[in-house]
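Task card 7
Instruction: Convert sequence to structure tokens.
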Amino acid sequence: IFFIKWGTIRLFEKYPQRGESMAKKVLRGTRLAIFCCFLLLLTVAAAFALRFYYRHAYPMTYREIITREAEENGLPVSLVPAFCRTESSFRPRAKSSVGARGVMQLTEETFDWIKLKIAPSEDLTFDDLYDPETNIRFGTYFVSYCLLRYHDDLATAAAAYHSGWGTVDNLLAQAEYSSDGETLDHYPYPQMRLYVRKITNSYQRYQDIY
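Output:
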């Protein structure tokens, strides 16, 4: 902008008859350039602000544990925090009305089943689910098993994680909820529908952010 103004003055000195006209054109150009710079800065600032907001709204708490367990179970790293955020907002002491515990909200029945699968000789109790490392380890395995059971369909696996295999298998047997008997097309329960939407939306956000 300084050089534009300096050039305008030199033009005015060299061509006094045309200087005023040229000065007006340069002034309009300068204003346009300033306006464009302002818009650019505003866009960049908005992008940074939006990214900051989404990182705050979709945190990657326990990132090291999540990364390790996701890789161990063959899952995308961005999928596990979607369950942690939806289930408990990453609160290790969270407890549901049905007794599910910890970051990924596992019930005692589910804990006992998973323990037989991956830690039969380890001295772990249901109370250990309040430990984020143990909870995420068990919860991530459960997510991977649900995906395996339901042919890698995230929506159906999420419904099973939330409502149990028995409920989902029963729905799959009904043509009004599943056209192929393997994945759910519709969800008869509002809470299940909302949960599946939260998981799939959060997973997309985590993919975009991280």
